Automatic annotation (TrEMBL):
Organism: Ruegeria spongiae
Protein name (Swiss-Prot/TrEMBL): Tripartite tricarboxylate transporter substrate binding protein
Database matches in SUPFAM superfamilies: Periplasmic binding protein-like II
Database matches in InterPro entries: BUG, Bug_dom1
Protein family (similarity comment): Belongs to the UPF0065 (bug) family.
Gene3D superfamilies: Bordetella uptake gene, domain 1, Periplasmic binding protein-like II
Length: 328
């Protein structure tokens, strides 16, 4: 465009004539169309906002070769753990909206952090374009199989009877959850900070803590009868534990159900988003990814960008209700 402007100025066109000619010129439109048609012309960076070796990292590693086949360009994985995905989201917000920097995100990063810890979250859910949904996980509250309660309500009654309970917390959500339950039910569950799901399950099985959160990665222990699920943290019941109600179903405004999806900076061109969605959907529906999914506690969760926005908005509303109850 600068070259075009200099070229026109060299012909000594009057400012008014120059402005008219530039207004009529199809060049900007053609350049934009050419960029969209040629995307991608270089490698795409896919940020992961969680620890290496975790479920999201592993999911990305299976997806990436399939996305590369569809895009015809390398996809470079960039690990950016921190803040339950907040570090990656913050970096993504500042990236150029050209489709070359995207992230594998989780619902809670965009629905929980901005609502519950806004002072530590330099973004809102409106700062991004949501491309396509991929995978859902099985969040639940778990306890050891021989715990003296089999349901969530029995656990609450046990705590109300004066019994001490401890909870291995892994995320900011865990601390807020325990604060909410203690205040609402008049109990005193002690929150103990824990480094990840592997430490949490060791604490549960070893009898060091009574309760914890699982994102579905402890399904094997559940199937072996080593732990039990007390409540689903998704708005619906879990696929693998259909007899266990959700906290939403039990009347609590609590929803930590995650869907993994591809997210891009706000303002990414529609044609570029469409190409990304097509490539990622092909990867999600590939035989290789289907084989991987058959060995995990996750489930395929296809969703459009608008459906992801709606799911985030619903979870934000429940989080606001929970925080309102805490402030009263």
């Amino acid at each position: 465009m600068k070259l075009l402007l200099k070229s026109l100025q060299s012909y000594c066109l009057a400012p008014a004539a120059l402005a008219t000619l530039l207004t009529l010129s199809p060049v900007p439109v053609l350049v934009g169309e050419a960029m969209a048609e040629s995307f991608p012309e270089k490698p795409v960076t896919l940020m992961i906002g969680f620890r290496a070796g975790g479920g999201m990292d592993t999911t990305a590693s299976i997806l990436i070769p399939e996305i590369e086949k569809a895009l015809g360009q390398p996809v470079v994985k960039s690990m950016q753990p921190g803040g339950g995905g907040a570090k990656a989201a913050s970096l993504l917000k500042e990236a150029d909206p050209d489709g070359y920097t995207i992230a594998l995100g989780a619902t809670s990063t965009f629905a929980f952090n901005p609502v519950v810890i806004p002072d530590k979250t330099p973004y809102t859910s409106a700062d991004f374009d949501y491309i396509v949904g991929l995978v859902g996980s099985g969040e639940a509250i778990m306890a050891r199989a021989d715990a003296p309660y089999d349901t969530f309500q029995e656990m609450i009654d046990y705590a109300k009877a004066g019994n001490d309970l401890t909870y291995s917390g892994q995320t900011p959500f865990d601390r807020i959850l325990i604060q909410y339950l203690n205040r609402k039910e008049g109990i005193n569950i002690k929150h103990i900070s824990t480094k990840g799901g592997s430490e949490a399950i060791k604490n549960i099985l070893g009898g060091h803590t009574d309760l914890s959160f699982t994102g579905g990665n402890h399904l094997k222990q559940y199937q072996r009868g080593e732990i039990k699920f007390l409540a689903s943290l998704r708005p619906e019941r879990l696929r693998d534990a259909p007899d266990v109600p959700s906290l939403t179903e039990l009347g609590y405004p609590i929803d930590f159900g995650n869907v993994f999806f591809i997210v891009a900076p706000k303002g990414t061109p529609d044609d570029v988003k469409a190409k990304l969605a097509e490539a990622v959907s092909a990867a999600r529906d590939s035989d290789a990814f289907g084989e991987y999914m058959s060995k995990t506690p996750y489930f395929t969760a296809p969703a459009t960008g608008d459906e992801i926005v709606d799911a985030i908005a619903a979870q934000e509303a429940r989080n606001r209700e929970m925080m309102q109850a805490l402030s009263e």
